[in-house]
Specification:
Length: about 525
């Protein structure tokens, strides 16, 4: 019979014995490889080993981040971009669907490009491409955003008109450099030129399929109407310089609908892709550029999107993409199968857990942990280049971030009953995170000006506000009571207290009439003193 022998074993040795460790973790040389040229994320849950992310051992530098709203996705992205700029002098372009990142980008000294609010992109700018190549990209974009791909004749007419617009502008279709007789850059045509060409063809009355021609005109004309011609004007930004401009926020929130936002996002991605290819192979360490797509389901779901193409080719050019979503099924399988690292924050819907577990093949133990995560806790899945004896999915205690979390407080003293006031378990104030309320109000459609006013009023009053004044402020910002109720319930306010809050709000509005809410709050502060 064998003997049981007790001996001292190092953490490093234990971490390599997968049968003894639940959950297991990769060895130290993987978790802490080359810290000076890596991004610190946090400590592992079991052995408290620091984890430094780099892509030396994984398939590529692309990252997927999934988790419910408020789980810490955008906080992690901001942290990652800050550290990448220090570690590798990386540039970053954020495709900002809802304008969520623009305030942070201002704070870190970045550049805001607000499409639809003073900034425009001419869809037919070549951006250093041959016109023939740009036409292919434009047609692929129109196929993604409209059903023109189902109508071959309309597609042919549109492509033919775009080509004619370039030729009329004296472009050479197979050349990159485009100059006139005096050596000056040529002026790019716009979609308005394309519409004119199609309308001239229709006015001749000789085309044998007039309905096809009219429909082709309609598809393009909707992007050229006054007030909606965001992509039919001269570009106000230098697209070729975007990838070397530090942190750039492409704010799409000023565009009116999902289609125009997707058109702007795809156009930016197409120029990034061509710039990436033109830059050639990279020999230096680190990442030249990080492209962030957060909740951009309309362009990250399709397998023939330019986002997929960047993911497939980015590694050799040192370009990385970060794709984040509450719903992992909104991310194309072609992207999921090509990302080198997936960060899974709190996910509670069973169908999403099923999808992630089936795709990444982690254990039921890991699944249970993910469903009970708190803010900032994450599981990391790494697609290692070669087969390994250690696990590909492991747990991080909490993402260690760069952005300070500021707490605000809603004061409840005036609206809770005397009985509840005596109850020590009843909180007299409700704490919540500044960034959390900012994100929520953006999600609800509250204007930037109103959000700034709300934040400023909290800051002026030592990060505190009476809940009744807060409700009046939200209502005057255009938020309906059902949304206010939903928000306050998320902060743990019960139904009876909610009734008291709204009754008090109605009384105060009647008392103060049309006075500015800021003045009401200031008067309340003076009275309290």
């Amino acid at each position: 019979m064998g003997r049981l022998q007790i001996s001292k074993v190092s953490n490093k040795t234990i971490s390599q014995r997968n049968l003894l460790v639940h959950p297991p973790e990769p060895p130290l040389h993987i978790l802490c490889e080359d810290p000076a040229n890596s991004i610190f994320v946090g400590h592992t849950e079991m052995l408290h080993v620091p984890f430094y992310w780099n892509y030396n051992n994984v398939a590529n530098p692309h990252i997927a981040i999934v988790g419910i709203s408020g789980s810490g996705k955008s906080y992690f992205i901001k942290t990652f971009l800050i550290r990448a700029s220090f570690a590798w002098n990386s540039n970053a372009i954020i495709i900002d669907w809802a304008g969520e990142y623009k305030q942070w980008v201002r704070e870190v000294g970045g550049t805001i490009i607000a499409l639809g609010k003073g900034s425009y992109i001419n869809l037919l700018d070549t951006g250093g491409m041959k016109p023939y190549d740009r036409i292919k990209q434009v047609m692929r974009t129109l196929e993604l955003l409209t059903d023109v791909g189902n109508y071959p004749e309309q597609r042919r007419l549109t492509e033919e008109a775009i080509e004619k617009a370039y030729i009329e502008g004296k472009y050479r279709m197979d050349a990159v450099e485009q100059q006139d007789e005096l050596g000056k850059p040529l002026k790019a045509p716009t979609l308005k030129n394309v519409v004119r060409i199609l309308e001239e063809k229709a006015s001749m009355g000789t085309y044998e399929f007039p309905a096809e021609l009219e429909n082709a005109i309609y598809r393009i004309k909707k992007f050229t109407k006054p007030g909606e011609d965001y992509f039919s004007k001269k570009s106000t930004i230098e697209l070729e310089k975007l990838v070397e401009s530090g942190v750039v926020d492409i704010d799409l929130s000023g565009l009116p609908d999902e289609t125009t936002r997707a058109l702007g996002a795809l156009t930016i991605l197409q120029f990034i892709k061509e710039k990436m290819r033109a830059s050639g192979w990279a020999k230096t360490k680190g990442l030249r550029l990080l492209v962030v797509l957060d909740e951009a389901w309309k362009i990250s779901k399709e397998d023939n999107s330019d986002a997929v193409m960047i993911v497939r080719e980015g590694r050799k050019y040192n370009f990385g993409m970060i794709i984040a979503s509450q719903n992992p099924t909104d991310i194309s399988e072609a992207i999921f199968s090509n990302v080198g690292t997936t960060f899974i924050l709190k996910v509670k819907f069973e169908k999403y857990l099923d999808y992630l577990q089936g795709t990444l093949n982690f254990s039921n133990f890991m699944r249970e942990k993910i469903s009970t995560f708190g803010v900032g806790q994450t599981a990391v899945n790494m697609a290692f280049i070669t087969p390994t004896p250690y696990p590909s999915t492991f747990l991080i205690e909490k993402i260690v971030g760069e952005e300070p979390k500021v707490e605000y407080f809603l004061i409840l003293n005036k609206v809770i009953s005397e009985d509840k006031r005596r109850d020590a378990a009843m909180a007299k104030s409700i704490p919540f995170e500044k960034e959390g309320i900012r994100r929520k109000l953006i999600e609800y459609g509250v204007s930037d000006e109103s959000i700034v006013e709300i934040i400023q009023l909290f800051d002026r009053n030592n990060r505190r506000m009476d809940v009744v004044a807060f409700v009046i402020l939200l209502e005057r910002s255009g938020l309906k009571r059902n949304k206010i109720t939903e928000l306050l319930q998320e902060y743990g306010i019960d139904d009876s207290t909610l009734i008291n809050i709204f009754v008090s709000a109605d009384k105060k509005k009647e008392q103060y009439g049309g006075k500015e809410i800021a003045q009401i709050i200031l008067e309340d502060e003076e009275n309290e003193k």
